[in-house]
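Quick start: what a row looks like.
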Amino acid sequence: MNDAILHADVQAFINENLDTDILKLVFKKSPFAHVSAKELAEQIEAKRKINKKLPTWFTTPGIYFANKLNISQTSSEATATYKASLVDGNTLADLTAGFGVDTYAFSKKMKQVYHVETELELSNIAQSNCDAMKVSNVTMVHANGIDFLEQTKETLDWIYIDPSRRTDTQEKVYFLSDCEPDVTLYTDLFLFKCNNILIKTGPLLDLSIGQAQLKHVKEIHIIALNNEVKEVLWVLEKGFKGEPSVKAVQLSNSTTEVFAFLRSGEQAAVPTFSLPQKYLYEPNAAVLKSGAFKLLCSRFGVNKLHPHSHLYTASQAKDFPGRHFEIKAVVNYNKKEIQKLDLGKANISTRNFPDSVATIRKKLKLKDGGSEYLFFTKNVDDKLIVISCSRLLQTK
């Protein structure tokens, strides 16, 4: 960590050049004796990338940014804030703390937080940023998280861990046993040190596999940000033996939408079906990841279009966890019938359909965009159909 980057004149230069071509900066001589052109470019590029992802870091003076890989791997501020809503008590150890976004969020809920990190550079950066953000209840620990747990005599209320999903050669891995550390090997140690564990995994981990490999799972939170699943959170509680609740969480700029259920309820649910009615509903990404396809029918009074389409319809407006549309027309998947809709461009989605969006656009010569939405899918009679609709704004 180069402390000279935090000098007022260097910080002013960074802020004044956020829109400057990075390559031009790299090949120009640095105006500062103790900060290279490469370092300036790295700070500017990182700050530019986190404008929307980490608004507090972007607007706080004197923030020191980590490298591009660390910034890309860190939680967004929105997902970190949601994590913090799940914990309470006095002490929490963030065992894979990195740049410190989750640590910062936890510091708003806990009396004492330990930022445990193996890379000294990241520990120093996190300390500097805590100072800049006037956070005083975080203790930096330069150590391996497992070593810290084995050695500490501190009584913890929570342990949080985000196992690395990359190998030494930066290849991505997806199974818990391939992550570092392998949390399935250390669950007993975690529960010996505290009663509550929060584990973050990637969005591609199968829920059934995760539940089978982890002990005492009380809750599973599937977190989507602006309709893209970012992470899955596993809440473990010492001694818990019941069925975990699943919460599909959709975060957006203005709302938090939560659909909670038990997987046994989904297994027992009996779906209802119908042809397209007045309204069309598309589940958000978190609900789709959760697999709660049948339960949506009884919970929200909607009908599925087809057993495998995961699109829903109703004759009346519903408070549904996802996108809402009003159906304008339904036609067969026939070029002449679709041409009668008289559309030059449209937003196209496919669900349980043999042709890809690219193939459909080529066949129909439809440009992307506009206010019209076309869903290409199958109906309850297994026929290929096209649903033309307009999107409705949700009331909450």
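That is the whole record. The mean pLDDT is 92. Residues 4 and 34 are 6 Å apart (CA to CA).
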